[in-house]
Amino acid sequence: MADTIQNNKRYEAGVIPYKKMGYWEPDYQPLDTDVIALFRITPQDGVDPEEAAAAVAGESSTATWTVVWTDRLTACDKYRAKAYRVDQVPGSEDQYFAYIAYDIQLFEPGSIANLTASIIGNVFGFKAIRALRLEDMRIPTAYMTTYKGPPTGIVVERERLDKFGRPLLGATTKPKLGLSGRNYGRVVYEALKGGLDFVKDDENINSQPFMHWRDRFLYVMEAVNKASAATGEVKGHYLNVTAATMEDMYERAEFAKELGSTIVMIDLVIGYTAIQSMSNWARKNDMILHLHRAGHSTYTRQKNHGVSFRVISKWMRMAGVDHIHAGTVVGKLEGDPNQIAGFYDVLREPFNETNLEHGIFFDQDWAGLNKCMPVASGGIHAGQMHQLLHYLGEDCVLQFGGGTIGHPDGIQAGATANRVALEAMIMARNEGRDYLAEGPDILNKAAKDCKPLQHALDTWKDITFNYSSTDTPDFVPTATASA
Amino acid sequence: MRITQGTFSFLPELTDDQIKKQVKYCLDNGWAVNLEYTDDPHPRNTYWEMYGQPMFDLKDPAGLMMDLEECRKTFPNHYIRVTAFDSTHQWETPRLSFIVNRPPSEPGFQVTRQECEGRKIRYTVHSYATDQPESQRYRN
């Protein structure tokens, strides 16, 4: 039962618990048009979980610490967010999942900045809770359609690149800092000619003393066009236009366009508004927009506090990026297989069904927004191709940086090894083979026709990154007896 | 040079048996397959000539293999590709596309550079094959 004080005592000056102010409504039935947020709350010792949930609802909507009479000038019942369900987190003693519903009119249409200023604004520093994590959100269709989504999307990206039926292949130029423009372009040319579809600037390559941005763009586009002629394929390089100001970013993006680049890149650290602005620019200029999630682990990795990456994935698909790094499962960076499956579904599917094992707490209709291409990058190599295809599917970019540039026979050989491994695996999968189990055999057989692949397998065969993940699902599959 | 468009261009040329298995995969997914051929494999040449319509109601890969045999006879020195179209909502696009015939010798492409102001260069990728009139390309 709700403990809301019903009469005018509710508005007497002073401090009353949030629960009694109307922010805890266990009988509330969320409307189809409500935004719903699911928080993981760790209340301070002695704080009632329902009061903590009500406090989060209050602080992320209309409340402040004390009663204000000016509430009565508004339709305050409507504007109050309502915590309507609190469940103990399975296997945890002090954490609770709190479901909070927000009226759609609390939010400005099409503004991630406004949405997030409410949902993750003040509440994360709130004293009454020890830790808080935003686990998932249900965006109602009515609000979803106020966002433009990815400017290009998976379907059109593939049509523009003329590449179908397999993951795209990429690499990040290494070393990430220090190469001159001329040397940088060499790496790009070798990797593209060897068989990659894309090469990528790293997140922190902008315009430093060792390489001015214009110089990089010019040399890179020479490499891209030369490689395209050498192979007959469309090739690309994500030119990172991240800069100090929007004016600088627009200038760099315009230059990339003038040079004929198919794709530009931004970093997550530029902020949500800048991302939406660049998305508009990309839409106007037929440009694929790549997002590097620089900085996200500061708030996505720890399970008890921050924002889950599945929420960031949702926001970024709404904000409108075409590519986003979303984990590799097998590589060097954090990534539990079930969690990553959830992120990839959020980015790629037209509709997400609730799937607690994958951390998806709500059905989510994407209302026709384009699909966003997940990018797998960080410590992956050709020898893992069967696992990558199994975990990540074919609509993604696999980025082998060290796994291309670190090849003993050179960059072209590294790129060729990756492409051959990939095509062989796709062929085997399409032929109906159990490619996950037979993966190493498939690769070894393909390597008989391809020395670079053989050398890649020899070099990296034992390289794995088996550390336990910190960000794992709370719900594990329960074995059910088959009938 | 070897043009590496299509899903399997880095592997040895597909045997007819391998092509058949890929076509079966497409049909099992409910996709319509078709054949296209060209003598201008420029990376931006989207519209290769269609060899008949996409086979929307095909059940057996043998149907496509028969057409492929004819197509190869008619255009032995052209590029031929199999493309599979998916009509599912929010795909509605090719889902697989791979080369199944190519000329014995592939002349490739030239990069033309037009030097502009401020070190800027405008690039054009040019098919050597198109230096010849259409009927005279890739003749043995």
Task: Describe this structure as you would to a colleague.
The complex is a heterodimer of chains A (483) and B (140). Chain A is α/β, with parallel strands linked by helices and 483 residues long. Chain A has helices at 49-59, 76-79, 112-119, 141-144, 153-161, 181-194, 213-231, 246-258, 272-284, 297-300, 309-319, 337-348, 385-392, 402-405, 411-430, 435-448, 451-460; strands spanning 35-43, 82-88, 96-102, 129-138, 168-172, 198-200, 236-240, 263-267, 288-292, 306-307, 323-325, 351-352, 364-365, 373-377, 397-399. In chain A, the strands form three sheets. An eight-stranded parallel beta barrel of chain A has the order 5-6-7-8-9-11-14-15, surrounded by six helices. In chain A, β6, α7 and β7 form a beta-alpha-beta unit. The longest helix of chain A has 20 residues, at 411-430. Chain A is elongated. The two termini of chain A are 40 Å apart. Chain B is of the alpha+beta class and 140 residues long. Chain B contains two helices and six strands. In chain B, β3 and β4 form a beta hairpin. In chain B, α1 packs across α2. The A-B interface holds A 155, 158-159, 162, 164-166, 195, 214, 218, 221-222, 225-226, 228-234, 258-260, 350, 368, 371, 416, 419-420, 423-424, 426-427, 430-432, 446, 449-450 and B 1, 3-5, 7-12, 18, 21-22, 25, 41-44, 46, 83-84, 89-98, 108-111, 119-123, 125.
What is the terminal-to-terminal distance of chain A? 40 Å
Q: Compute the CA-based radius of gyration of chain A.
A: 25 Å
Discrete helix count of chain B: 2
User: What is the chain-wise order of helices and strands of chain B?
Assistant: HEEHEEEE
Helix content of chain B: 10-25%
